[in-house]
Amino acid sequence: MPPVDARLAFAVELEQLDQALAQRLEALAELGHAVAELRAGAEAVRAFNQALPAERTHLDDAGAEATRALEGARAALAAAQDAVGRARGEDARAAALRDEARATSALRAAEERLERLRGRRSALEREAEQRGAEAAELDRRARELAGRLAESPRVSTTAPAEPGLEGVLDWAARAHAALLVARGGLESERERIVREANELASSVLGEPLHSTSVALVRTQLEEALR
Fold this sequence. Notes:
By secondary structure, the chain is an all-alpha fold. It contains four helices and no strands.
C-alpha cells in the first residue's frame, strides 16, 4: 500500500477536528435549548405567582357581590310568589305570574353566575397548586442542568442555582451567558480549521478555495492527489 500523502493526512486530521467541534457545538446547543426552556418556565410561574393575589381578591370580591345578588334574587322571587297568591282578577294574576317568571329567571342567572365564579376560584387554586409543583420541578431541573454544564468542556463554571424561582432565573441567565461564550469560542475554532483546510487545498490545486465544509475540501484534495 502506497504511503498516504502528508497533505491529505493533514486534511483528514482537520476534518476529524471539525467533526469533533461540530459535536461539541451540537451538545452545547442542546444545553442552551434546555436552559432557555427552564428560564421560560420559571418566568411563567413567576408571572402567575405575581398575579395570583390580585386574581384571588378579584374573584373573592366578585363572589361576595354575586352572593348578595343571589340573596336579592331569592327575596325578589319570594315577593313575586307572594304577589301571585294575593292577586285578584285575571289581569292582576297574569301580571303577577309574569313578574314571578322574571324573578325565577333572574334567580337562575344569579345562581349560575355564582357557580361560575366558584368554579373559577377552585380552578385558580388548583392551578396555584400545580404551579407550586412546577416550581419544585424547575429547582430540580436547574440542579440537573448545572451538573451537565459543569461536565461540559469549554463552559465556564457557574455557581449552582439558589432555591426558588429567582435563584433559578439568576442561574439560567448566567448559564446562558456561559454557553454563548463557549459556543463563540468553538465556532471561531471551526472557522480557523476551515481556513486552514482551504489554504491547504489551494496550495495543492493552485487556485483559491473558499469552501465552508472541511469534508468537501478533503474530498477535493483527495481527488487532486489521486
